[in-house]
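Cross-check.
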Amino acid sequence: MSNEITLYVNDSPMSCVGKTLADLLQQLEKPSQGIAVAINHAVVPKSVWATTLLEDNMNVFIFESIAGG
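Predicted model, tokenized:
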């Protein structure tokens, strides 16, 4: 039995072996600063990323701040 789940990250399907949102962000090599995350259209505060459990078929949106002029 595999611990792998399928998530939709920014509308693209991907496999994830982690259990938490923090695990997913680490798998994606995302920095902890300069991003915001929503799961199923609800913003998830950074303070609970490590305890937010992921489930199969969740929609995860990662918003990255971009500096520019």
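The radius of gyration is 12 Å. The helical segments are 21-27. Passed to J.P. for a second look.
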